[in-house]
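Sequence in, structure out.
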Amino acid sequence: MAHFGLFCPPGSGHLNPMTTLGRELQQRGHRVTLINLLDTQINADAAGIEFHPIGQSEFPIGAGTKSPDCDRNKCSSVF
């Protein structure tokens, strides 16, 4: 069978349907890998699909959840 690489923005509104698609593809006998930032590995693990990280130096674990101009008093989510 085929090997599918799934790539999407790292927000939950994108990851949840993508991992659901990944599980369905696996049930149909395909190999599936989520390609995303390190912070999203937990989503791949929870779905039981493979994971391949990208942007590790630019977005280490935890960096994908805060904006670059975040300060102590106010911080917004990037995703």
